[in-house]
Amino acid sequence: MTAHPDATGRALPPWLVVTALVLVAANLRTLMASLPPLAESIRADLGLSSAAMGVLTTVPVLCMGLLAPVANQVARRVGASSTVGAGTTLVLVGLVLRGVGGQSVWPLYAGTLVAGAGIALAGTLLPGVVKSVFPAHRSGLGTGLVMLTMMSLAALASATAVPLADALGGWAGSLLAWAPLAALAVLVWVPVSLATRRRTLPEAPPTDVSHALPWRSRTAWLLSGFLVCQSWQFYSSLAWVAPTYEAHGWSAADAGLLMSAFAGTQLVSGLLAPVLLDRVRDARALVVGFSAVGGAGTVGVWLAPGLAPWAWAVLLGVGQGACFALALGLVVRFSATPRDSARLTAMGFLLGYTVASAGPATMGAVEDLSGSWRVLWGLLALVAVPQMLAGSRLRPGLGRVGGTSRERVTA
Question: Which residue of 180, 246, 276, 351 is 20 to 30 Å from 285, comparing CA positions?
């Protein structure tokens, strides 16, 4: 693991760097995972439609897409660690704004927008940070650690959303409860950011133009296509698993627990998949296999939602958690340097999240128009097909992004 010197030139302890990385990752999913179990209460209090509720999930995902290239360019000017710190600060501001607005619509949406921008800045650059902190043969472990943290906090946010609302006087208090975690992440990240800035200031700026997004790389397009499908399924599932089962007569608390099973199983698959990725040269069996597992869960909710809901939630979580972790791991594998990893991540997030951001609201509109949750889940099941096709093309012979000033399109 790479040591980072502090302002005096002494190396920061590796545990501090990893702790800061983990705390930042912990704040990248609580914003979205804490909302769905409270959706029916929020919708009733504010008079929102299913499509309007879907927008609350769409906004941060859209930010993650549109602002991914911005994060890359900001990092070029002020450094990746400073940009991650700024992003985490925006998450904190957004969480506070979202939680202190009471029974008002605009703070809920404005806070979601601000925090979504912060998630975009921090999340886009984390794979590059992982590549710079962990040695190449341990990059899968670093990716798994980030995934484990993200998904464990997502599971916790889903499971505790309703109990926190009961304890703190309503859904606004429940949403605000995650602000202290963001504040802690900001504080712990400060010494890492200062140390990294001290270390990188003397370096000469790169002479190539490889900060541009790798539009000419076939590898980048395949990874981006895979991320489009995976993200569409994940964020649509995140938004509508709980409301689907509440519509089938479940209580909000029980639906929240089902959501926590969906998010919690991603802990195992999100950690296991990158470790398995470190052990294989050809990742296609892992990518296609886990895509099929997630697709099976979607088909279960579509065709037989009451038959085995906990099994469907587990299959969804295992498949989607593993696929996102594999995508991040493949970004590291198929990039030549940390800077190239940031470029590849920016392109993947720009395309993947921008397209997928339409998922929750579009699926909500489908439910509004059709009056049927079954149609929604049937459409989501179809998305698994192109996801598996894109994954099946990610063969070892594909060229890596980077290494030259001009991207090579690999046949």
Answer: 351
Give yes or no for a contact between 178 and 31, defined as CB atoms under 8 angstroms apart. Answer: yes
Whether the predicted pLDDT of 118 surpasses 80: yes
DSSP tag of 12: E
Nearest alpha carbon to residue 290 among 259, 250, 253, 330: 330
Helix (H, G, I), strand (E, B) or coil at 169: coil
Which residues partner with 5 through β-bridges? Answer: 11
Can you tell me the distance from the alpha carbon of 285 to that of 289, in angstroms, rounded to the nearest whole number? 6
H helices of 27-49, in order, are 30-33, 39-46
- β-pair partners for 11: 5
CA–CA–CA angle 6, 11, 17 (5° rounding): 80
Per the listing, tokens 């190539």 go with 208
State how far the Cα of 390 lies from the Cα of 408, in Å rounded to an integer. Answer: 19
What's the CA gap between 107 and 125, in Å, rounded?
27
Give residue-wise pLDDT tens across range 59-115.
888 888 888 888 878 888 888 888 999 999 999 999 999 988 766 788 999 999 999
How far is it, in rounded angstroms, from Cα 337 to Cα 333?
10
User: If we measure between CA atoms, which residue out of 39, 48, 2 comes closest to residue 21?
Assistant: 2
> Is beta strand 4-5 parallel, antiparallel or unpaired with respect to 11-12?
antiparallel
Q: Please tell me what DSSP assigns to residue 335.
A: B
What is the rounded distance in angstroms from the CA atom of residue 311 to the CA atom of residue 247?
19
- pTM summary value: 0.72
Lowest mean pLDDT among 207-221, 282-296, 298-312: 207-221
pLDDT at 219 over 50: yes
Q: Are 79 and 196 in contact (CB under 8 A)?
A: yes
Specify the higher pLDDT residue, 76 or 139. Answer: 76
Which residue in this structure is represented by tokens 């509440």?
Answer: 246
Q: Using CA atoms, how far apart are residues 146 and 126, in angstroms rounded to an integer?
A: 8
Q: What is the per-residue DSSP string for 388-399?
A: HHHHTT--TTSP
Q: How far is CA 395 from CA 254, 275, 283, 290, in A?
A: 42, 18, 7, 16
Residue with tokens 């470029």: 343
Which of 398, 362, 401 lies closest to 383, judged by CA?
A: 362
Task: Dump the DSSP string for 70-97.
Answer: HHHHHHHHH-HHHHHHHHHHHHHHHHHH
How many percent of the chain have pLDDT more than 70?
Answer: 88
